[in-house]
Amino acid sequence: MLIEFSVGNFLSFRDKKTLSLVAAGISEAKESNVLETNRLSLLNGAVIYGANSSGKSNFIKAMSTMRRIVLFSLQQQSVKTLDIKPFLLNTETESQPSFFEIVFETEGIRYRYGFEITNKEIVGEWLYETKKNADKLLYIRQNDGIEVTASFKEGKDLESKTRNNALFLAVVDQFNGQIAKRIMKWFNSFITISGLNHEMYQKVTFDMLENKDYALMLNSFYEKLDLGFDRLKIEKVKFNPKELPEDMPEPVMKLMVKDLEGAFRYNISTTHKQFNKNNEPIGEKEFDMRSQESAGTNKVFNLSGVLFDVLNNGGVLVVDELDASLHPLLTRALTRLFNKKENNIKNAQLIFTTHDTNVMNSKNWHYRRDQIYFIEKDKYGASDLFSLAEYKEKDGSKIRKDRSFEPDYLQGKYGSIPVIGEIKVTFP
Predict the structure, then answer these.
(1) Does the first or last residue of the chain, that is N or C, have fewer Cβ atoms within 10 Å of its Cβ?
(2) pTM of the predicted structure, to 2 decimals
(3) 3-state SS, residue 426
(4) In this structure, are residues 21 and 9 in contact, taking their beta carbons and an 8 Å threshold?
(5) Which of 82, 51, 88 is nearest to 68 (CA)?
(6) 40-71 in b/e burial notation, b at 16+ Cβ within 10 A?
(7) Within the chain, which residues score under 50 in pLDDT?
């Protein structure tokens, strides 16, 4: 389970900012939204608000960047750059490394892992383990080398095998280090996706629908969401070279035929009741899902496999723009999957960005003050991150749970909204 994530000097985040999922000492929604571990009370997720260009997507990108660097470090060639962009609006930070750190618990053990990185190399890396109370250093990497402690025997003698642009953790994992494998396994369950470009995730849904038990569960879910169709029809079609354009250059065609040999594509359609002129049902009509159903219906379908995969196996799901193309009630239905103990038996966590202020209505949505985060930029272009539980009134008091969060936010009480001046248009 994720405990906290921190980033600094990356894109619009100049200073170190931390999203914490440690539950604050407040009373609301304890039974549904708080996950108990041996040492900590953790939240089952967070929602992030902010104006356009405030840094919401940059924060999600920081999470996905850390995941990418960890999981694909060894696939990086020695001469390849790392696609890291520091905070460029300050002359001091533009030449400094970016900072990433994550704290999580897996198999009853807490880890704190992080690194400092430039576009060319890893300049720092560290790993701490906590089995009881105090953090225990396993290894630390600095410009002058890697120091491996006696508690991390699996990392011994691998220091010299680590390239400047590769993580030591990934090298140890390659040599079957048990702690490294455990951490890599956790990062595989740390999923970051886009709510705008969601077509790439539909294969997870297709794979789940091929399992009879999962198909029953997903179809029941679609039915309860009232998406407008009666049932789904999925057809798995083997690749046929005759479907390629006839005017395709022969070398390109041969390459594609070779690459796609044995591949499949999916045809997905929905069925709708058809009626006669007297509105009596006379049969069914099939609609092509992609071209004839709404963007919201396609999005629910594409993301449903990922959602249920995380709920079934545990892990962390991070979604940028979860609410895009969705009715607020659909957004609520998706988020409440994580806020109900009977659905979330593996303690999965959901973090998402949104502009849907309905989520702030704690009575209907069940999000606590410590789960509602805001991102805003200061006058120097740097993004700040803070939770509603951290926000203080002018007199120093904290926000009470009985406050009207949504109207207060829209009125600018907590910041993180666009400041829009009066718009006057003069036509030529």
Answers:
(1) C
(2) 0.90
(3) coil
(4) no
(5) 82
(6) eebbbbbbbbbbeebbbbbbbbbbbbbbebbb
(7) none
- Angle among Cα 375, 331, 359 to the nearest 5 degrees reads 45
pLDDT of residue 242: 74
DSSP 48-90: EEE-TTSSHHHHHHHHHHHHHHHHTGGGS-TT---------SS
pLDDT at position 418 is 62
Angle between the 328-336 and 295-313 helix axes, to the nearest 10 degrees? 10
CA–CA distance, 287 with 272 (Å, rounded to integer):
8
Positive or negative torsion for Cα 328, 330, 331, 333: positive
Helix (H, G, I), strand (E, B) or coil at 111: strand
In this predicted structure, what is the pLDDT of residue 198? 87
DSSP output for 291-305: HHS-HHHHHHHHHHH
Inter-CA distances, 81 with 84, 145, 360, 378, Å: 8, 20, 41, 30
Residue 195 to residue 303: CA distance in whole angstroms = 8
Q: Can you tell me the distance from the alpha carbon of 215 to that of 297, in angstroms, rounded to the nearest whole number?
A: 17
Question: In Å, how far are 220, 270, 310, 353, 375 from 318, measured between CA atoms?
Answer: 24, 29, 11, 9, 16
Scan for tokens 């829009």, then name that residue. 420
User: Rounded distance, CA 374 to CA 354, Å?
Assistant: 10
Name residue 284's beta-bridge partners: 273
* Complete domains list, the chain, with CATH: 2-189+314-410 (3.40.50), 203-300 (no CATH)
Separation of alpha carbons 270 and 285, rounded Å: 8
How does DSSP classify residue 319?
E
User: Cα separations (Å) of 290 from 171, 293, 301?
Assistant: 42, 6, 10
Which position has the token pair 């300049």? 123
